[in-house]
Amino acid sequence: MAKTAPPPSSAVVRITDQAQLADAVRDAHASETALFPCGGNTQPNFGLRPTRSGKTLDLAGLSRPVDYPARDMTITAEAGMTLAALAETLAQAGQRLPVDVPRAAQATLGGAIATNASGPRRYGNGTLRDYVIGISAVDGRGVAFKAGGRVVKNVAGYDLCKLLIGSLGTLAVVSQVTLKVKPTPEASAFVACDLTDFAAAEARLAALVTSRTTSAAIELLAGPAWQNDLALGEIAGGAVARLVVGLEGTREEIAWMAPQLLREWEGKPSPRAVADAEVAALWARLVEFSNPRDAASASGPIILKAGVLPGQTTRFVSALRESVPDASIQAHAGNGIVVARWPVKPDRDVAKLIIQRLQPLAQSCGGQVVVLSYPGGLDLTRQAVWGGASESLAMMRSVKNQFDPKGILNPGRFVY
């Protein structure tokens, strides 16, 4: 996943080893040349447009596995390794990184870390912050540094790993990553039900708290993209949304949990299990929703992500549907994460909609809204993309100045 969208006129510096990366950043620091780290370039419209031209650091050549002691359930790999290649390597030992990253064949480890990518499995498995235990990187002065280590029980020093995750490549360029991994579950299943109103959605979500089953994903789906899903069929007439629960575990666990959840959900609206043959494809559609292939095109949709209190998820989704009736919505309801996308229309003032309606709505639900992607012809302000200034902004700028004193890494892209 790309760390930024380079300006069209950027020269490209292809990086093939970590020493070359440090040299390239050191030279750019000396000449005050802007640098735009780039991996798979799958999320070029995340963040603001670059404020000046410069050079693109193509990190796709840093794609080698470094160390894989499978018995220790850790792996070290270079940051340009794609998530698909990582999954293939781990699968040989029956293991996986259970973090969902869209377009895994192109998305890279470094880019996923820069954008803090996650998806439906975050409810049961967490995010990259839970799996990154070591990072090698180069700061904005060209100084290479390491944080964490290659063993799970490593708590020495400041937790720079978490600081770099989600920083959009503005603090340092990640070159190498060490991750915890988990065994691949033997089986998975989905149980779904259509919801006549959002009160019914809230009741079903509340019931999951005391369920005897263990959910890997809790997804509240609404809008045109989910109206007639291949695995789930057409949403029943009069229904406002669909609740889908993903289950993962051993074959014995799934054989017990799926019927158990169906029994717990007996009544109206009536639940149903997704056919085994459709389960893998449904997981894929849920993972890819936040970053469709047309997201970066000139006619692509606008895509927002809201983080609200989990107990406010249904309220936020209901109000969002009223504000943007043509929006398709995927809410990781157990975490309070809501992703919405809709086509940009000439007669709709997107910035006004975000700033005056959606951001205050998210704040009233204990959270905030950021823009994940918007088409190239749309010009959005910092407030529209990242929200208003927060109390932590001064501290964030101070950290940025420590890591990148000349502001050469992704200038203007992030909130500071």
Radius of gyration: 21 Å
Based on CA inertia axes, which overall geometry fits?
A: globular
Helix content: 25-40%
Structural class: alpha+beta
User: Can you tell me the CATH class of the largest domain?
Assistant: Alpha Beta
In what range is the share of β-strand residues?
A: 15-25%
The total number of structural domains is 3
For the record, the CATH architecture of the largest domain stands as 2-Layer Sandwich
Pick out the low-confidence regions: 1-6
Tell me about the largest β-sheet: 8 strands, antiparallel
State the total count of DSSP E strands: 20
CATH topology group of the largest domain: Uridine Diphospho-n-acetylenolpyruvylglucosamine Reductase, domain 3
Rounded average pLDDT? 92
Q: Give me the number of helical elements.
A: 12
Q: Strand order, biggest sheet?
A: 16-11-15-12-18-19-17-20
Give the N-to-C terminal Cα separation: 21 Å
Task: List the keywords.
single chain, 416 residues, alpha+beta, Uridine Diphospho-n-acetylenolpyruvylglucosamine Reductase, domain 3, Alpha-Beta Plaits, 3 domains, 5-stranded antiparallel sheet, 20 strands, disordered N terminus
Structural notes for this entry:
It is a single chain. The strands form 5 sheets. The protein has an 8-stranded antiparallel sheet, sandwiched between helices. Strands 4-5-9-7-8 form a 5-stranded antiparallel sheet. It is globular. With about 425 residues, it is an alpha+beta fold. A hairpin with a 6-residue loop joins strand 4 and strand 5. The model is unreliable at about 1-5 (pLDDT under 50). It has 3 domains: about 1-185, Uridine Diphospho-n-acetylenolpyruvylglucosamine Reductase, domain 3 (2-Layer Sandwich), CATH 3.30.465.10; about 185-280, Alpha-Beta Plaits; about 300-395, Alpha-Beta Plaits (2-Layer Sandwich), CATH 3.30.70.100. The protein contains 12 helices and 20 strands. The longest helix has 15 residues, at about 350-365. The protein is about 30% helix and about 25% strand.
